[in-house]
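ok, trying the design again with the full structure, not the truncated one.
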């Protein structure tokens, strides 16, 4: 995150954060640092000269502030914006009518002691689901999180507010989302042909174009987790607070993309390469020294 972006974020959150004894700058910086690194809670508290209790309180204060401003950062596009997104997908991949790509991602957690089996995903570890729709620039248009890992993607979607939005005509008739085979084919959801080993040339070509377009949502999740490395394993015992933390990271993901007009391809590659490289300068460390 650039310094100018950080200052803009402070202006957005300032009306929703209490001042008391810890400055707003330190609250937001410690929040960014905690999400962006894999340090222990105690280590982060020491870094910012805070007690563990204070860091815990200020971290969730920022989460709550981001929840308040979330409608300004993650929102369903209007008709003009939908047309712009469709044009963006068409120029990138040649697939017409795409207003967004949808998928789910697992956010690993330790798992609660009670009903632990409900949180075990098909990959064998406890997690919380994150469903998201993104545009061609990796920006989230809609997110839903909080469902346990054992729940299928299709069930999460069926019970999501997004489904009601789509069924109520919030898409132009010729526009649609792209989803994988976990979702059902509808007028607003385009899914690939089921590969039974006997696909025609046209069907195989469609699936290839579909996959190369839909991969953008995987890249959005990849960039989200590369920037906010805490999401690789969110070590939290308070399961009810996990969705709030995930949502705050998604808000920050969008905020950075909107306010920093960098090349997304290069940004993603650099972040992915630097995830575990201790020699790479941390931008939050630089901001900490400047404040």
């Amino acid at each position: 995150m650039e310094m100018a972006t950080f200052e803009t974020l402070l202006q957005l959150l300032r009306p929703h954060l209490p001042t008391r004894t810890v400055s707003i700058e330190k609250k937001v910086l410690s929040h960014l640092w905690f999400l962006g690194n894999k340090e222990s809670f105690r280590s982060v508290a020491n870094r910012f000269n805070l007690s563990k209790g204070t860091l815990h309180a200020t971290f969730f204060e920022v989460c709550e502030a981001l929840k308040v401003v979330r409608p300004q950062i993650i929102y369903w596009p209007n008709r003009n914006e939908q047309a712009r997104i469709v044009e963006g997908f068409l120029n990138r991949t040649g697939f017409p009518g795409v207003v967004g790509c949808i998928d789910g991602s697992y956010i690993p957690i330790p798992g609660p002691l009670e009903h632990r089996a409900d949180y075990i995903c098909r990959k064998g570890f406890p997690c919380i689901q994150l469903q998201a729709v993104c545009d061609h620039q990796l920006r989230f248009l809609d997110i839903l999180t909080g469902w346990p890992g054992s729940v299928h993607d299709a069930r999460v979607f069926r019970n999501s507010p997004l489904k009601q939005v789509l069924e109520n005509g919030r898409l132009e008739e010729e526009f649609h989302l792209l989803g994988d085979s976990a979702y059902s084919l509808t007028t607003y959801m385009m899914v690939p042909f089921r590969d039974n080993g006997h696909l025609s040339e046209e069907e195989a070509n469609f699936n290839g174009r579909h996959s190369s377009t839909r991969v953008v949502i995987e890249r959005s999740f990849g960039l989200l987790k590369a920037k906010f490395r805490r999401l690789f394993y969110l070590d939290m015992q308070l399961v009810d607070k996990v969705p709030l933390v995930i949502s705050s990271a998604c808000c920050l993901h969008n905020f950075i993309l909107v306010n920093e007009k960098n090349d997304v391809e290069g940004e993603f590659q650099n972040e992915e390469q630097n995830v575990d490289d201790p020699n790479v300068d941390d931008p939050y460390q630089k901001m900490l020294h400047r404040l």
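Keeping the full-length input from now on. The chain has eleven helices and five strands.
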